[in-house]
Amino acid sequence: MARRKIISGVKGMRDILPAQQPLWDKMRKGAEETAAAFGFWRLDTPILEEQDLFARGIGLGTDIVEKEMFTLTTRGRDKLALRPEFTAGVVRAFIQHGLFSLAQPLKLWSLGPLFRYEQPQAGRFRQLRQFNLEVFGAADAILDAQIIQAGFWFFKKIGLKNIILHLNSLGCAKCRKEYRRALLAYYRPHKNKLCADCKKRSRQNPLRLLDCKKEQCQELAQKAPLLVDHVCDDCKDHFKQVLDYLDGLEISYYLDNTLVRGLDYYNKTVFEFFAADEKEGKKNALGGGGRYDGLVKLLGGKDTPAVGMAVGLERVAEEIKKQGVKINGQNQPTVFLIQLGKMAKKRSLLLFEELLRARLAVAESFSRDSIKSQLKLADKQGAKIALILGQQEALDDSVIIRVMETGVQEIVPLVKVIKELKKKLQKLK
Ligand code: HAM
Fold it and tell me: What is the 315 CA–ligand 1 centroid distance (Å)?
């Protein structure tokens, strides 16, 4: 009979296999500890949101909204999208649940999957995961610096070194208007040299011309007028304060005039994190963020300043591997429970639970019937002690304690097993 065709996973979406879980645990734990250390509350939002939320929030002309959203229409004709980022959904929840009435600044963090219909390649997937931080209700530059500090704290926690910060200020709507004019005037005589996407960008959001990865456009971007020369005094002062705070933290930065970010909601500070060897050609950022003081209002809430950032965990995982950061494997069992015979097998399920309740790291392989193969496994998993419950022991309400290293065995009554085990383990330390 012909074998059935195997169904593979969806393009650009990867499984995280058991062997990779310790690395992911390290990142998840690092994220949780960083968020707690800096006073963030966890917020989980749904994976599906209204398409309009992202169109309005991230911006109609952006690559994310125009080309990369996974969209669907429900049976009830609702137009939904798989979230391509956290920020818009977090802002929606902030407004919808009246979180602005809580003490501000309100710090919220999230972790989970996001979806972008990109061409899959190294560091670019269709399902990605982010560790995301947002702060609402403070315009003070100290929070821009603190968000960046939290990013570095996370990288340090998970053992990454040599992370570089790229930084820029996009100014406010007022100063950007003037800059837009200067930028368009500069690009006008070069219009024919631009790629097709940039021709469109020059109409929708000329700032994004600076961000194009194509060589011909990057060359032009290098000589374009600088945004810093056009920001107003308020924005200049705000940016200077951010730099002062970073200096105080001894965080070095690279002032990057072409850093504009791919989402429309930013104003003032924007930044991205890179691994040191990635800085040339500005390929794949490990994370990025910035200030978005207008987004809450744009999505129907009260005027609320905000700043945030997200780290892409797939890219961070690659960097962890590249830097050879040590990852602890799954916890080793200290006790391996072996059973032999029908009655012992039945009794061993309960004994296993008793051992768990006594907080012992215990492992088993109940589906195996041979003592030899169970002992082999206990050895392979590095257990210090094997507990052997045979037919006779099950009848006598006793159990054999075997020290794996020496092979020395001792029979103890079942009622005393926990006490005896703990005593033995103490000696083996
Ligand atoms: P973003 O720059 O679009 O920002 O994404 C943040 C990070 O997610 C990137 O630096 C990258 O590490 C990762 N990432 C993005 N796309 C992909 C992909 N296709 N495959 C793998 N990793 C990817 C945001 O999403 C903003 N919402 C961040 C933010 C929060 N700004 C303010 N608050």
Answer: 10
